[in-house]
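Postdoc handover notes: sequence design on the structure in folder B. Input tokens:
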């Protein structure tokens, strides 16, 4: 069976949805349809996906996730995460693209597989909240929010917010 005939059969087999039930716009000979399915098994999957009225035809989100063991901010845009720190480690990065080799702290979280590589700002925030000894960070709850730094040429990044520390007090009584 040539490609043109296959395309004609697919076009002839188009379905419309009427009150949740599928109706054929034109009838196909049963043998032709069987032959088409045997010729191209992917056609059956395509048709099955097409026939699911009101459902996602092809869920592309499965291709948008990273295989990395690190949390990627771009994968969590618009979401705020609440996690509990379970541990820290230092990860060494080799020199690359003209940048010198460096080391960065990495957070692990209770019940989560992915880790968060901390930038200098987030490291300072956690040091102020929980002290400079990483042992003091364990068991503390933090919020992770995605910030958009694309206007600065950096893409998206994480903002770490300690959730279990007292909010600072503000006063308008300070003379200046």
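Designed sequence:
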């Amino acid at each position: 069976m040539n490609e043109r005939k296959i395309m004609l059969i697919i076009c002839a087999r188009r379905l419309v949805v009427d009150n949740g039930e599928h109706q054929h716009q034109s009838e196909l000979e049963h043998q032709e349809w069987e032959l088409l399915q045997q010729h191209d098994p992917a056609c059956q999957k395509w048709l099955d996906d097409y026939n699911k009225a009101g459902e996602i035809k092809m869920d592309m989100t499965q291709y948008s996730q990273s295989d990395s063991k690190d949390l990627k901010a771009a994968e969590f845009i618009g979401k705020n995460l609440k996690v509990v720190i379970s541990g820290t480690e230092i990860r060494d990065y080799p020199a690359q693209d003209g940048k010198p080799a460096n080391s960065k702290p990495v957070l692990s979280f209770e019940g989560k597989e992915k880790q968060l590589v901390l930038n200098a700002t987030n490291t300072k925030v956690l040091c102020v909240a929980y002290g400079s000894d990483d042992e003091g960070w364990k068991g503390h709850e933090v919020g992770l929010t995605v910030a958009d730094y694309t206007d600065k040429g950096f893409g998206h990044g994480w903002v770490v917010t300690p959730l279990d520390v007292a909010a600072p007090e503000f006063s308008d009584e300070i003379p200046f």
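Context for whoever picks this up: The longest helix spans residues 41-51. Don't rerun without checking with the PI first.
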